[in-house]
Amino acid sequence: MASNMSAIFASFQQHINVEQDLREEIRQVNKDIDQKAREIQTTLQIIHQEGGLTKIADCCALTRKLFLDVKTGFSKLAVLIPEDQYYRFHDHWRFTMQRLAFLASLTVYLESGQLAMIEDVAQIVGVTSKREDGFHIDLEDYLMGLLQLASELARFAVNSVTNGDYKRPLHVSQFVAELNSGFRLLNLKNDGLRKRFDALKYDVKKIEEIVYDLSIRGLKSEEKSEDKSGASSTS
After folding, report:
1. 168-177: buried (b, 16+ CB within 10 Å) or exposed (e) per residue?
2. Handedness of CA 204, 209, 212, 218 (dihedral sign)
3. Do the Cβ atoms of 226 and 235 come closer than 8 Å?
C-alpha cells in the first residue's frame, strides 16, 4: 500500500514539474515580447515631444518593424500552449497583450485617424482574432487596449496644442467621443474593464476642455479660417 501511495504521489510530482517547466518557458517568451512592447511604446513617445508631430510617419514606420519581432514572439508562444488550454495560461500574457492592443491601435490611429478593429490588431501582433482559430487576442484585452488609447490621445491632444497644432485636438475629440459612445453600448461585467471604462469619461472631459479653451481663445475659429482661405487660394 505504501509503495502504491509513493508511486501515485511521484506521478503527481512529475505532472507538477512538467507544468512548472512549461510555465517557465511561457514566462520567458512573454518577457521577450513584453520587452519589445516597451521598445514600441518608447518609440511612440516621440509624438509627445517638441517637433514630434513632424516625425509621426517615421515613428509609425519604425513601430511597424518592431511589431515584426512581436509576431515572432507570439509564434513561439503559440507553439507552447497545449490545444484548448489558452485560458489556463492566459494570465501570463494578458497585460502584455493589452499593452500591444493599445500600441497597435495608436499606430493605426496615427497612420489613418481611424479605429483599429480587433482583426487589424490581431494581424499587427501576429495572432488570430477568433477563439476557434487558435492563439488569439481576447476581446476584453482588445477593449482594454482601446481604453488605454483614449487616455493616450487625451495626452496627445494637450501636447499637440503645446506644439502649435490646434486642429488635431478637434479630431481627437470627435474620435474619443465616438469611442465613448461605442463603449456605452456594452454591458460590461468584467470588474477591471468596467473600472477602466469609468475613467474614460475623464479623458473625454479633458479633451473637451482643450477644445473649449481653443474656442474661447479664438484658435479654433482661426484654424477654420485658415482652412477656408487655403481652400479659396487653391480654387
Report:
1. bbbebbebbe
2. negative
3. no
Q: Is 50 annotated as a binding residue?
A: no
- Judge whether 123 and 117 are in contact, CB under 8 Å: no
**Which residues does residue 136 pair with via DSSP β-bridges, in sequence order?**
128
CATH of 140-219, one of 2.40.37.10, 1.10.1750.10, 1.20.58.200, 3.40.50.1980: 1.20.58.200
Q: What sign results for the dihedral spanned by CA atoms 107, 111, 117, 123? A: negative
pTM for the full predicted model: 0.87
Q: How far apart are alpha carbons 159 and 179 in whole angstroms?
A: 21
Report in angstroms the alpha-carbon separations of 133 from 73, 120, 122, 138: 18, 15, 12, 12
Model confidence over 117-134: pLDDT tens digits?
A: 999 999 999 999 999 999
% helix / strand / coil in the chain, to the nearest 5? 85, 0, 15
Supply the pLDDT for residue 160.
Answer: 94
As given in the structure block, the three cell numbers for residue 83 are 490545444
On whether the CB atoms of residues 133 and 67 are closer than 8 A, the answer is no
